[in-house]
Amino acid sequence: MTSIPSVPNQNTRLARFLLVLRDVMARPSGAIGLALVFAHLILALISPMIVPYDYKAMNSAMMLTGPEATHWLGTDHLGRDVFTRVLLGGREALLVTGIATPIAVTWGGFVGIFFGLVGGRIDEVMMRVVDAFLSLPWILKMLVLIVTFGTGIEVLIPTLAFFYGVPVIRIARAATHDVVARDFVSAARARGHGRMTIIRRELLPNVLDTLMVEGAMRWSWMLLAFSSLSFLGFGVSPPTPDWGLMIADARGFMSFAPWGVLGPVIALSSLIIGINLTADALAKALGIDRAQKAPV
Amino acid sequence: MTQSVIDIRNISVGFTGKSGATLPVLRNIDLSVAEGESIGIVGESGSGKSTLALAAMGYLKRGLRLLDGSVVFRGQDMFSRTRPELEKIRGGELALIPQNSGQSLTPTLRIGAQLIEALRLHSSVPASDHVAKATELLGQVRLPDPKAIMSRFPHELSGGQQQRVALAMALAGEPHALLLDEPTTGLDVTTQAHILELLRDIARERGMAMVYVSHDLGAIARVCNRVVVMYAGEVILKGTTRQVLKAPVHPYARGLLASIPRLADHHLPVALDGRPPAPGGAGNGCSFVDRCALAQDRCRSERPDLAGLPSGELVRCFFYEQAEQLALAGNGAVPIQIAADGVPALQLDDLSISYHQPGLLDKFLGRSEAHVATVDDIDVTVQRGETLGLVGESGSGKSTILKSVAGLLPPAGGNITVAGGEALAPNVESRPPDHLRRIQMIFQNPDDSLNPRHTVAELLEQPLRLYFGLAGQALHDRSVEILDRVRLGGHYLDRLPSQLSGGEKQRIAIARAFAADPDLVLCDEVTSALDVSVQAAVLDLLNELKEKQGTTYVFVSHDLAVVKALSDRVAVLYQGRLCEVGPSDQVYATPSHPYTEVLLGAVLEPDPDTAPTLAADDVVELSPPAQGCPFQRRCPRKIGAICDTEIPPWHEGSDGHAIRCHLGIDELAAVQATQAAE
Which residue of A77, B245, B285, B362 could cross-link B300, Cys pair, CB 3.0 to 4.6 Å? Predict the structure, then answer.
């Protein structure tokens, strides 16, 4: 038995967005998650103006000192202020992943929806290619590309966008399959709409929720991947501060100067946890059961 | 008076709404079912009938809670039992048969194993006798060859057979009472008639109590002694089946009966306007007041009690004495007949459709396996302004033909031509825009055919933009005009489908089809997903649009009475082959083809004095026979070997009436007359 809904004033996209946003914020995971993500974004924007020290200023007199009033998180092995470097260390990562994530979701989503709609043998073959691709360890594939083309932003963004778009294909295709079987798609075909119109008007609005949640998840994984690359020395080049790089530099002194690792680790994990919590709340607000989606 | 088996005492069930208020789903219901008695609970969707049946088992769906009252089953208060105690009772002394039993059977276990499990848990039969007992039960539910069925998996059985297995499992626990929740909804008419006969007989033999929940008054009329009519969570009328179905004293029950189409009618059913209040929305007065023709001021301010009448009936209405003024049938609109001008609007020539696709390996090896087409040899012409009804059981290919005409499923052979003798391309992608516009299709379920993310304005915009290039103010004006035509209105433009009722959604789907200004509208079971009172309104609308637009319809439905209400001519399909084509009055009044006879004989009317005739078995074969008459295996008029080997010829009668049988129309009439005389 359903109650009769009151007559709505507007069913605009904006109204729906606000409704979903309110629902996300009403959940503890959503509120905490969004707060963490926004704090990181704001810090990334304003950190150059508020940092207490120059991030590359070395001080041989103060190497690996512990946390104290002047250096809240101590200094690293070159005597640089860890707090300053932690504040600045996410900028590169956020910039790269912030651009690469939408590209990954867009191209992966489009390809997935397209093959979900077309179906048949092409779809089967395509999915086997995707499976084969996903069966290789990502770090190997990525290292091959980066070693070949270099480590600049102009290589990292397309590489990450490409690699993280592939699993999106599967998610988008699975979601599309559920929608394609419904009569409104048949109705659109029978009216004579073209394939692109059907994708844009009939399929996309129904797959978008899944893609948004998926995008959020991809973003957190991409951040982790970016930091891993930096950690291995294939991401940001020194002396630019970056969490992955900082962890790599400081890990040798972890036993007696743990603050050098702890600072960037807390920063990175709080961002990733924030994104994951937001994605979780978003999935619940949108009524998507992530447990039922194909594991990638 | 015999002892009551189930005693429902003044129960109220509700849930907590979004506002935090408790909203009732059932309100103060009393019901007792005696041994050997079968009670029908009828009502439209949302009336609380299923909730009541489940409450009788001491079960409530998630979110619902018992507000008041109790349920006593054979002296035990069901809502105060512990879980293990309930588990012993449920499935044993008290069994439930749900709507779609196929889903409640375990797909990975053989039928025999499932039955034996039921026997082990709920009967006193010793383990050594389980197999014999299970086989016996399958025989009792009239399944052919019970031994073979024992080793089958559920998916190997038809819907009717699955329902019989569910019944056998219920009987394994030797129940005192059976709860049936729409047990025959979704089954074919002939299967339904057979299952209902079986239920009647079994209940009578065993003296079981039955609670039969259904929206289908025809089914209720067949199996129940007493009927309870529910509306908005209340019992509004209770009496014997004859009292309730022949001369109901409540305005709602009369409206409901008038909205049911019947085979003998020459008019459309009468729609019951409005919709029931949402839970908690009934106010202080009578819950039916907004739709009632007898409503007075008192009805708005005071809730009527369930009053007992001298005749033994119980009715919840202040003015029940005046209810008899309300027509039970009769004054519905007359189906519009446009004088056919002889121009064919749609012509199907030797159409055949196959879902079979040769595999890659077969293609490579050049193997072409002989297979039987799903739909074959269809020759039909629909005149402009005519409504052709396509009837047949599930799997008869009626919807498949519509899909092919709409271009969604390319035919394997034959031609489809539209007015002007223009042949239609097999694929929708290769049809010119004009052809696309002229043929529009309306689907069964508006929940599925309307994109849930589009507002009504966006839904209507699609054909208007595509076919007429409308935009801006012109688009808006035209949309409003179309909404007015389907009796909605401009204020619906901003709504999403989820904010509409079932009937309103189907109106939007109809509006979208008519926005293209089509010549030919294909209706695929357009009223099957709707309540009867809403169905009547939709039929009325289609009729009105036909009058205004001069549209040609091809109307597909499994409900023979619905097809009768609208169609000028009717084509009967069996397993993808035509059996009989003719003017619907003639076909319905004097069915000639043996299959038409069987099909019409099995229709259940909401009248306890009529009984279906079961002329043939309801055994369902998955594919038509490779040669001979498609109906050979079930035909009660089979004449011999010729039926098995030769495809029967067409025999033509008057007015374009034609049948496909080895016997002629007159010969069949003679056989029918002899049988009737006997």
Answer: B285
Tell me which DSSP letter residue A201 carries: I
Q: Which of B436, B448, B495 shows the shortest C-beta gap to A192? A: B436
Question: Quick check: B448 and A183 CB within 8 A?
Answer: yes
CB distance B516–A192 less than 8 Å? no
The rounded Cα A198 to chain-centroid distance in angstroms is 28
Q: Which residues of A touch B61 (CB under 8 A)?
A: none
Distances (CA, A) of B398 to A243, B244, B525: 65, 35, 10
Domain annotation covers residue B332: no
Residue A13 lies in a domain: no
A193/B495 Cβ within 8 A: no
Tokens (6 digits) for B615: 């002329």
What is the three-class DSSP state of A128? helix
- Name the amino acid, one letter, at B162: Q
Closest CA to B22 of B235, B280, B276, B231: B280
Q: Which of A12-16, A120-124, B53-57, B251-255 shows the lowest mean pLDDT across its residues?
A: A12-16
Q: Are residues B282 and B397 in the same domain?
A: no
Nearest to A192 among B444, B451, B466 (CB): B466
> At B364, is the pLDDT very low, low, confident or very high (cuts 50, 70, 90)?
low
Mention every residue, 6+ apart, whose C-beta is less than 8 A from residue B72: B6, B7, B8, B9, B78
The neighbouring-strand residues paired with A75 are: A81
Number of independent structural domains in chain A: 1
Alpha carbon B269 to chain centroid, angstroms: 16
The answer, for A193 touching chain B at a CB cutoff of 8 Å, is yes
Q: Has residue A12 been placed in a domain?
A: no
Looking up tokens 């008054």, which residue turns up?
B217
For residue B428, tell me if it sits in a domain: yes
- Burial of residue B243 (CB within 10 Å: 0-12, 13-18, 19+) is buried
- In this prediction, residue B61 carries a pLDDT of 84
A191 closest CB neighbour out of B17, B445, B462: B462
Q: Which residues, other chains included, contact A286 with Cβ-Cβ below 8 Å and sequence gap of 6+?
A: A20, A209, A212, A213
Smallest Cα distance from A12 to chain B, Å: 8
Span B168-198, pLDDT tens digits:
998 888 888 999 998 888 788 888 888 888 8
Domain that holds residue A81: 20-49+65-292
In a domain, A251, yes or no: yes
Residue A262's CATH number:
1.10.3720.10
Residue A55 falls inside a structural domain = no
Host domain of residue B111? 107-169
**pLDDT tens sequence across B300-350:** 888 888 888 888 889 998 888 887 777 776 666 777 776 666 788 899 998
Residues of A in contact with B441 (CB under 8 A): 187, 190
Report residue A180 CA to chain centroid gap.
28
CB contact under 8 A, A3 and B449: no
Q: What is the pLDDT along chain A (296 residues), one digit of tens a residue?
A: 333 344 445 567 788 888 888 888 888 889 999 999 999 999 888 888 887 777 777 777 777 777 777 777 777 777 788 888 888 888 888 988 999 999 999 999 999 999 999 888 888 898 999 999 888 888 888 888 888 887 778 888 888 899 899 999 999 999 998 899 899 999 999 998 988 999 999 999 999 988 999 899 899 999 998 888 888 888 777 778 888 888 888 888 878 878 778 888 999 999 999 999 999 898 888 877 654 443 33
Q: What is the pLDDT of residue A76?
A: 75
Last residue of a domain, one of B543, B572, B601: B572
Residue to substitute from A19, A180, A191, A204, interface B, most B β-carbons within 10 A: A191
The last residue of a domain, from among B545, B572, B599: B572
Overall domain count for chain B? 4
The phi-psi region of residue B342 (left if phi > 0; otherwise alpha if psi is between -120 and 50; otherwise beta) is left
Tokens linked to B107: 């797909």
The ipTM of this complex is 0.82
